[in-house]
Design goal:
By secondary structure, this protein is mainly α. Helices cover about 75% and strands about 0% of the residues. Among the domains are: about 90 residues, Serine Threonine Protein Phosphatase 5, Tetratricopeptide repeat; about 50 residues, no CATH class. It contains nine helices and no strands.
Length: about 210
């Protein structure tokens, strides 16, 4: 009888703990939802700092709001870039990428800022990440091709231009770049070797004075 009572008590305690845990999860979910709604409203009003703080708290309670937080960092980054506050924009885009590494658009936006800062190597890396995520997006190849061209990497620029033309054979920007790059390539081509010299004619024999 005592064993039965002890078992019943253990089961009751486990059920009670489960109910408490479920109640806490439900409470956290409601609080997270409330914070996320407030954060969305702040974002709508372009109150970026407030929106980020609210969504950071919401995400701590429920990870499903992480994309919302990344989105607000992205929006604040765009606003900073528009105001030519490029370092602030870089910081926000980097935070957005830490949270959401699957959004090609964030890499593209950060690459655009890196180009403003003349950091072409980082811009190349970000466009390459964007291409991995969206390999059929023609503009990423066009942007990367442009950067390669500015770095005088004709071979890589031509390769990306060819990929762009494969996606859209009638793309005028890609067609113009291809013609320009091929002309530069031809201009830089080494000169052909000179023709072989013809053998000297043997002196005329048996000349008579």
């Amino acid at each position: 009888m005592k064993k039965y009572s002890a078992f019943t008590l253990v089961v009751a305690l486990a059920l009670c703990a489960a109910q408490v845990s479920q109640a806490q999860v439900s409470k956290d979910a409601k609080e997270a939802n409330k914070l996320a709604r407030e954060g969305a409203e702040a974002s709508k009003n372009q109150e970026w700092d407030k929106a980020i703080e609210l969504l950071r708290k919401a995400t701590a309670l429920d990870r499903k709001y992480a994309p919302n937080l990344a989105g607000v960092y992205q929006q604040r980054g765009f606003a900073a870039a528009t105001n030519q506050q490029f370092q602030d924009a870089m910081s926000d885009y980097s935070e957005a990428i830490k949270i959401n590494q699957q959004d090609a658009r964030i890499y593209e936006q950060r690459a655009a800022v890196e180009m403003k800062l003349n950091d072409t190597d980082k811009a190349l890396a970000d466009y390459s990440e964007a291409i991995k995520l969206k390999p059929n997006e023609i503009r990423y190849y066009l942007y990367r091709s442009y950067i390669y061209e500015t770095k005088n990497d004709i071979k890589s620029s031509l390769a990306d231009t060819a990929r762009a033309l494969k996606l859209d054979p009638n793309n005028q920007e890609a067609k113009s770049r291809k013609a320009r790059l091929e002309a530069r390539q031809a201009a830089n081509a080494p000169l052909p070797p000179p023709p072989a010299r013809s053998p000297k004619a043997s002196p005329a024999a048996g000349r008579t004075p």
